[in-house]
Amino acid sequence: MNSPTGQDSLEAEALDDTATIVRLYAVTDGRTRARHHLALHTVLGPGRRSPRPGLAEESVRIVELCGQRHRPLAELAGTLALPVTAVSVLVSDLIDAGALAFPIPDRRSEDSDLQLLHAITAGLKRRHPNATAKAG
Question: Which of 19, 27, 33, 132 has minimal Cβ neighbours within 10 Å of its Cβ?
Answer without folding.
Answer: 132
